[in-house]
Structures are given as structure tokens and as C-alpha cells.
Design a protein that fits this description.
Layout (H helix, E strand, L loop, with lengths): L2 E8 L4 H21 L6 E7 L2 E7 L8 E9 L4 H11 L8 E5 L3 E10 L4 H14 L25 E9 L6 E2 L3 E2 L2 E2 L3 E3 L8 E3 L3 H10 L6 H18 L2 E3 L3 H8 L6 E6 L9 H12 L2 E5 L8 E6 L8 H24 L11 H7 L6 H11 L3 E3 L3 E2 H19 L3 H11 L6 H5 L6 H9 L4 H9 L14 H20 L13 H14 L6 H27 L6 H4 L3 H22 L4 H7 L7 H15 L2 H23 L15 H22 L3 H8 L3 H10 L7 H19 L10
Antiparallel strand pairs: 1-3, 1-7, 2-3, 4-6, 5-6, 7-8, 9-10, 11-12, 13-15, 14-16, 15-16, 17-18
């Protein structure tokens, strides 16, 4: 079967876009071909800094003929209906339609639509211009004279050539010569822009890849990554060092070169006095180079590894020299930042009020930076005020959760006060990725308690689903306070996520809270804290609004009138936590129906919810659990049906109305199981609670075998329905069994 080779060659594509763009090209092309009636055996995408390539093999040479019968209206239908049917079927008159008789429905029109198959070449030539023109680049550009014309081609960088060949492995291939904005597809590509810039004629993928390899273009990005990684490891090892590996940087660097050449440079050892995080980020961010460390040692070495795109005649000496000059200049700046951040600010007299507000010591550099952050009124969010106000709110939240977590409040408060101070340091100003990291280092330098220093860095954690969690109680408290303040604040001002948009990373913050609570075993009721914190934010907003009104001579606003109903927003935020919790537990293997059976709208102790789900999962998969579930669901379904009909149900169960031993046995079993389950739940022993309920299995089964619930005697029927309600109430203490599938 024929194969299709497609290459779109342009000027350099940004490395961060290449992998996704190649995947987009594969999906767009294969989807379009399949939609047009073609099929294929396999497809693989490739990318380099200057080209996107697609190899589709086993593509059918022609789409199949299509015959479709489209049923229309009755022959005596209104004229407008018949005209609409003809237009939809592509017929010019009713004479082109067939008339079919139905004994029951009468005569009606049927259009027989035949579409002959088309060649793959025709289909490719038809779909490709649209795919290229509408390609989903994040930031496309126009270029050249054509850019002045409306509707001219846009691409991430100027598109230079297109290769499109089609044919079998053993026969001559043909070019599919579609054209877009003056660029016509051909069988000509070009090699490495410096080593082999001449034209290369290609036929199919195998000789295309081989020809590019000869022309110093390594097409496979994964192979480029592998070569860079292993060569970097080898050159480091040969120098008595080991590579500090960085998957993100490796991905980026492999997208910057078509013919990777790994080299080693160096800088003066004096710069190693700078924290290793700064050195690594400086060299990575500015020069896209890897750092190294002594084999089996700590810290960094003064050697770095760079990846060039050419085989230099001098072995790379000039390339290494040039990169070294830039690295040294950047490290010189970094050393300057590092030293400046440890010195005094020049305007300490202006920071006294802020220092008093937060209990800061202006003899300490990091305290000065926090005072400066507050004094400058740096905005956190237009509706939520300044960073200083935010820190005060986090202090209030931390005070509410320090005690239940068993954390030292004084250390918690000190960590909160200094947690955002490094935002005013020059190191973080240059490298925002280091916020928290630099705060910890500066805190340690000025003699803060180790738990405080650790909390300053760890309160940002976790940053993602697989990121590390804070480990110490102080850090856990500050991390929870920070994330809860963020979530409650944005809910208070109605800036919650919508659809796929989440500009303030609130989903990540909620998942962080959930992971800390569940994985660190934190018992914390959320609703009281959400309510009090949201009330504080509402009051602050109203106070500011009243202040502005007073300045303008207007009427005052009350906090009641300034905000929407608080309780609905509080429950909405709790529901947001529930949604994230469901996803988290589902990823851990829990069933959705079991989560729903345990989760009530007011459930705000998330650790307790998770433990209930765990216990219910173990119980419901046991034989007793399965049988009790069946009996309980039968009881709740009968009860729900009678409640819906308005059938009288007794307020309580009367033993005097029992007529059968099965009723008496079930009542006794429910009374005993309920007491044992309640005691177990009070001790939060959910497995024991469910084990106690499992004793209901046999009496419930016997009850339904021997007892007719809907007895003719209304009093007996009402009493038996009340007995069913006892079953629902007893099992409902651990879960809503009606929501469990099966």
C-alpha cells in the first residue's frame, strides 16, 4: 500500500512548541484523511528546529464509493417540505427521487445519493492547504510582501518549503503539488543550514531520513535527546564529574539543534560561593547549559555542559569561549544580587510602621524586605488588596489551624510573616522560580529557627500532582493557610475557575490542600474556617468601599449589601473541594459511586471522607457487603416508592404490631447493629461499623422472603415501612447505599 511523506520546513520553530506542533500536524492530517474515506496502517511525526515531518504508511490509494439512501417526506407532503428534502439531497427535481410504498405510511420519496471514490492524491491536495493555513500556532506571524494582503498565510516562523510525496515502497513516488501562498509542494528539501544547505531530492521516508542524516540533520528528536544525554554524561565522567540531569532542559536543548555536539566549558571557582540553585538557573535560563557536580559529592563544580549545532573546525574552542564569557557575566550579576540581598536597604526609616505592624526586626535583611513589600503596597489582586494585606490574612488563617495540627503558633506566625519577603529580593526579582528557595536561604543566614526557614520554602508545595509535600508541622500549617486564603479570597470576589480557564491556579491550590490533608493525615474541618475567613474578606471589601464612598460624599455600604449571600459561596467552594477530592480518590483507585455514597454536601472533614471511602470499598467487595447491599437497596427502593405515593409510614416501630418472627428478628438485629455501628463511628472505626451492619444480612433476607410489606392492614403496613426506614437509617450512618451500583 502507498505511503505519504509530508515535510513543512521553516525558519527556527521555538523549542517549546515543536513536540505539540508535530502532534497537531499528525492529528489534523490523519483525521482529515479518515474523514474523506481513507484508512492507514500507521503514522509517526518527527520534528527538528526547522521542520515538521509526517510519515503515514499503509494509506489506501482511493476512497471507497459511497451509496446512501435518504428517506424523504410523503408524496402528498406540503411543497415546501419536498423542496427542502430535494435541496438537502442535492436533487434538482422530484423526478430524480424514487417513490417507495409503505402499506401503513403510504408513498414517500427516497433519494439515492451516490458518491464515487476519489484518489488519495486528490484528497491530500484538497485538505492540506486548509490544514496549513489554519494550523493552531499560539503566536503565528506574517512575512514578506504577501503579508500586506488580507488573508495571507501565517506560520510560527516564515514557511520556506513543503515536501509531499506519495507512492509504494517499490515503485516510483509522485509529488502531490498543492500550492499555498506561492509555495508549491515538491520533492525537494534542504539539509543543515551551515553544513549542507544544498537541495536534496527525496522519494519516500526512508531515503528522506537517510539523506538528511548525511546532510547533518538528525530527524528523530528522541534520538537527539538520547545522544545529548549520554554524551553529556560521558564528558562529565571523563572529567571526574557527574551531570546534573534536567529533563525539561534536555527537551528544550534537543529542540534547538539538528546536529548535536556536546562540549564542556568552565567558570571561575569563586562563583561557587553563590547558592547552587542560582548558579543552575542562571546557566540554564540564559545559556541553555547543564551544570555538573563532583562525583558522589554535594554542591556544583565550575564546569558546565553546552550543546552546539555545528561541528566546529577548532573542536569547539571558540564556541566554549563565547559561552563561558556570557556565563561569567551572568554569574557576576547573580553574585551581585546575592550580596545585595544580605545587606541593609537604604530607606529603613520609611519602614518603621510596616515593621511594627508585622513585628519585624529591621536589623535583619529579610525582615527589611517584608517591611518593604508592605510599605510599597505591592498589589496582590485588584479586589483582594496588597501583598501585605494578604500576609495578614494568611496569619489569621494560620492561627485557626495551628492548634489542631499541633504546630507551635509562634513559629507558624514568624514563618507566615517572612514567607513572602523574598519577593522583594533581587535574586527572586531576576529568577521568580526561586521564590521560597531564596527565602529559606536568607532566613537561615539571619538565624531563624530551622522549622521557620523550611516552612518559607515548603509553603509553596505541592506545585503539582506529583510534587513533594511539606513534611514538618510548621510548614504544613503555613502551606494550608496560604492555599486556603487564596481559594477563599478568590471565591469571595467571584473569581473562581470557569471551564478550562484557571488563571490563578485555583484547581492546583485545592488539590494541594487535599493532598496535604490526606497524605499527611491532617484532621481539619473546612466549613467553619471558610465561613470566618470569607466573612473577614467581605468585611474588608465593605470597609474599603465605604472609605471610597466617604471620600466621594456618597452613601455608606453595609457588609450585607456589599457582598452576595455568604453561605452559598461557602458551600460552592466546599463543592469545588469535593470535585477535586473525587478526582484524587478516583486516581487512587476508588469507585465514583462509593465516593458519592459517602460524600454529603456538608462533608468538610476530607480525611474522614477518604477513610469512609476506604472502609466502604473493603466492605462492599466482601460477600456480606454484597448481600447487605442487595437487601438494603430493595428496602430503600420500596420505601422511596411508597413515600412518593404518599403512603402512611409510622413515626416509629411498634413491636405490638409484629405478626411474624422475621419482623421481630430484623428489629432486634437493627437495634443491636445500630448501637454497635454508632459506637464504632464515634470512634471513627468505620470498618467495625460496617462489620456491625453486616449482621443485618441474614435477617434482611429472611424479612423479604417471609414478610409482605404492603399488608392489607394499614397499621401493619405503616409499621413494616417504618422498619424499612430503620434499615435505611442504620446503613445511612456510614453511606447512602442507594447510590452504590450493583
Amino acid at each position: 500500500m502507498p505511503n505519504l511523506l509530508l515535510e513543512l520546513r521553516s525558519e527556527e520553530i521555538p523549542a517549546r512548541m515543536q513536540r505539540k506542533a508535530a502532534g497537531d500536524l499528525k492529528k489534523l492530517v490523519t483525521d482529515a484523511l479518515v474523514e474523506a474515506g481513507l484508512s492507514y496502517e500507521g503514522a509517526r511525526e518527527y520534528w527538528t528546529p526547522r521542520r515538521l515531518t509526517l510519515d503515514i504508511h499503509g494509506l489506501t490509494a482511493r476512497s471507497a464509493d459511497v451509496r446512501e439512501e435518504r428517506k424523504g417526506p410523503r408524496t402528498d407532503a406540503p411543497e415546501k417540505a419536498i423542496e427542502g428534502f430535494l435541496r438537502g439531497a442535492g436533487l434538482s427535481s422530484v423526478s430524480e427521487a424514487q417513490v417507495v410504498s409503505d402499506p401503513k405510511k403510504g408513498d414517500f420519496y427516497v433519494a439515492v445519493i451516490s458518491k464515487p471514490g476519489r484518489s488519495a492524491e486528490e484528497i491530500v491536495a484538497e485538505v492540506m492547504p486548509g490544514i496549513i493555513r489554519d494550523f493552531p500556532w499560539p503566536k503565528p506571524m506574517r512575512w514578506g510582501k504577501a503579508s500586506a494582503k488580507p488573508g495571507s498565510l501565517t506560520w510560527v516562523r516564515p514557511l520556506q518549503s513543503i515536501v509531499c510525496t506519495f507512492g509504494t515502497e517499490h515503485e516510483e513516488t509522485a509529488v502531490i503539488p498543492f500550492e499555498i501562498d506561492g509555495i508549491t509542494a515538491s520533492n525537494i528539501t534542504y539539509g543543515h543550514r551551515f553544513h549542507a544547505p544544498g537541495a536534496i531530492t527525496v522519494k519516500r521516508f526512508d531515503d528522506y531520513a537517510a539523506s538528511l542524516e548525511k546532510a547533518k540533520v538528525m530527524l528523530d528528536a528522541e534520538r537527539r535527546k538520547d545522544i545529548i544525554l549520554h554524551d553529556a554524561r560521558d564528558i562529565a565522567f571523563a572529567n571526574g564529574l557527574e551531570l546534573v540531569e534536567d529533563e525539561g532542559l534536555l527537551e528544550e536543548v534537543s529542540g534547538l539543534v539538528e546536529w548535536p555536539q556536546v562540549l564542556m566549558g568552565s567558570f571561575e571557582e569563586d562563583y561557587l560561593s553563590i547558592p547552587s540553585e542560582i548558579i543552575r538557573l542562571t546557566i540554564k535560563t540564559n545559556q541553555k547549559c547543564f551544570v555538573t557536580r563532583p562525583q558522589g559529592g554535594e554542591g556544583l563544580s565550575n564546569k558546565f555542559i553546552l550543546v552546539a549545532n555545528i561541528e566546529a573546525k577548532d573542536g569547539g574552542k571558540e564556541i566554549v569561549h563565547g559561552n563561558g564569557k556570557v556565563v561569567r557575566a551572568r554569574l557576576s550579576d547573580a553574585l551581585h544580587f546575592w550580596k545585595r540581598d544580605q545587606g541593609n536597604l537604604p530607606d529603613l526609616e520609611t519602614l518603621v510602621a510596616s515593621a511594627e505592624k508585622f513585628g519585624l526586626d529591621l536589623a535583619k535583611p529579610l525582615d527589611q524586605r517584608m517591611a518593604k513589600l508592605d510599605a510599597l503596597n505591592v498589589t496582590f489582586h485588584a479586589k483582594l488588596g496588597t501583598q501585605g494585606e494578604r500576609v495578614q490574612r494568611i496569619r489569621a488563617m494560620a492561627a485557626k489551624i495551628a492548634f489542631p495540627l499541633g504546630a507551635d503558633y509562634k513559629l507558624v506566625d514568624r514563618a507566615v510573616v517572612l514567607a513572602k519577603a523574598d519577593l522583594r529580593t533581587e535574586a527572586v526579582g531576576e529568577f521568580p522560580e526561586l521564590q521560597g528557595v531564596m527565602g529559606r536561604k536568607y532566613a537561615a543566614l539571619q538565624g531563624e529557627d530551622a522549622a521557620v526557614s523550611t516552612a518559607i520554602e515548603d509553603h509553596y508545595k505541592p506545585q503539582g500532582p506529583s510534587d513533594q509535600l511539606p513534611g514538618e508541622k510548621i510548614a504544613i500549617t503555613v502551606a494550608l493557610a496560604d492555599k486556603l486564603d487564596t481559594l477563599i479570597g478568590f471565591w469571595a470576589v467571584d473569581e473562581k475557575p470557569t471551564g478550562s480557564k484557571d488563571p490563578f491556579a485555583l484547581r492546583r491550590a485545592a488539590l494541594g490542600v487535599i493532598r496535604i490533608i490526606l497524605e499527611r493525615g491532617v484532621r481539619l474541618t473546612l466549613l467553619p474556617r471558610i465561613a470566618s475567613h470569607m466573612g473577614r474578606i467581605d468585611a474588608d471589601i465593605s470597609e474599603k468601599a465605604n472609605g471610597r464612598k466617604a471620600e466621594q460624599g456618597g452613601d455608606y455600604l453595609t457588609s450585607q449589601g456589599a457582598v452576595d449571600d455568604g453561605q452559598s459561596r461557602q458551600l460552592d467552594l466546599l463543592s469545588f473541594f469535593h470535585d477535586r477530592l473525587k478526582v484524587y480518590l478516583r486516581d487512587q483507585g476508588a469507585r465514583y459511586d462509593l465516593i458519592d455514597a459517602v460524600l454529603t454536601p456538608e462533608a468538610d472533614d476530607l480525611l474522614l471522607v477518604a477513610r469512609r471511602v476506604e472502609a466502604l470499598t473493603a466492605f462492599i467487595t466482601s460477600e456480606d457487603g454484597k448481600n447487605l447491599l442487595a437487601g438494603t437497596k430493595r428496602a430503600t427502593q420500596i420505601l422511596a416508592a411508597e413515600e412518593k405515593k404518599g403512603t402512611v409510614i409510622a413515626d416509629g416501630v411498634s413491636e405490638n404490631l409484629f405478626r411474624l418472627d422475621a419482623e421481630r428478628e430484623l428489629f432486634a438485629a437493627i437495634t443491636k447493629a445500630s448501637a454497635e455501628a454508632s459506637a464504632a463511628i464515634a470512634n471513627e472505626d468505620f470498618r467495625s461499623a460496617m462489620q456491625a451492619l453486616s449482621a443485618l444480612r441474614a435477617p434482611v433476607d429472611r424479612f423479604f422472603e417471609e414478610v409482605l410489606v404492603n399488608d392489607e392492614d394499614t397499621a401493619i403496613r405503616a409499621n413494616r415501612l417504618a422498619l424499612l426506614r430503620l434499615i435505611r437509617d442504620a446503613t445511612g450512618t456510614v453511606a447512602d447505599f442507594s447510590k452504590i451500583a450493583g
